[in-house]
Amino acid sequence: MASLNVGNLGEFLREQRRNAKLSLRQLAEAADVSNPYLSQIERGLRKPSAEILQQLAKALRISAETLYVQAGILDERDREDLLQVPAAILADSSISEQQKQALLQIYESFRKENAQQRVADPPSAASAE
């Protein structure tokens, strides 16, 4: 896994914010972060947590995985793999819609927990083989 790529992440966030026609202040308010903090993220000066990335993704109406990839928390290949699981759950005709939604919620909660853990405790270069 790569280290947090905050420069490219900041540029990407700024581009997404502008595409959504939001001011820095509007996005900060929608994502429940301070205006100066968001500005520092956009300028590549701060490393946001997975939780903050998730809040920003929700406010921008983009997937959190997209931001995780941009931040280097998640590889593009991992993202593609992640999309296969929900698709398989939704395509399974042997389970009810309610069961599908329950499985998707459980899966999503595990992914969020693991992403937050990866940001809080990134693996060292020696342990990554």
UniProtKB/TrEMBL annotation:
Pfam families: HTH_3. GO terms for cellular component: cytosol. CDD domains: HTH_XRE. InterPro entries: Cro/C1-type_HTH, Lambda_DNA-bd_dom_sf, TransReg_Diox_bact_type. SMART domains: HTH_XRE. The keyword Phosphoprotein does not apply. Residues 13-67 form the HTH cro/C1-type domain. GO terms for molecular function: DNA binding; DNA-binding transcription factor activity. Keywords: DNA-binding. Signal peptide: none annotated. This is XRE family transcriptional regulator.
